[in-house]
């Protein structure tokens, strides 16, 4: 005769096995490479540190970096992309010169025919361009036509490009400027929503 204790013990084992299964563990750490690139001299762009911590709290692997040696950095990303699913998709985020760098790194990856799922740029000093291997680019800008301005698509670009004017219009945020744009909580929340959509997590 099978005892009640046997059933309770067996049920408990099943629940624990399900909780510790690879699929449930992996669900907390989605695949993908998320890099946040800080601007000049690595002393500004501290809002990216906060955003990086917010992403990590959600179980998303995210790395905050100073400006990198472009070719070597692109090779690192490309190697990870090729080696396993954990390296896909690629998401690049940057502020100021770091925002410029997101587009430059994407252009390097384009040479190897490697797609970039999402680029989020906070006030780049240049205008891109956004290369054709980028699927979706969101550019938050606070300036005019000369600097901290809209980015332009490259001739081969066929993805989705959103230039978001934070100074005027329906997306304007009072008090936002070049030296605090990457610290704004509303923009962090919007960026996180876009990242979660790309990574297909709730």
Automatic annotation (TrEMBL):
Matching InterPro entries: AB_hydrolase_fold (IPR029058), TAT_signal (IPR006311)
Residues spanning the signal sequence: 1-27
SUPFAM superfamilies recorded: alpha/beta-Hydrolases (SSF53474)
Name assigned to this protein: Thioesterase domain-containing protein
Keywords: Signal
Species assigned in the record: Peteryoungia desertarenae
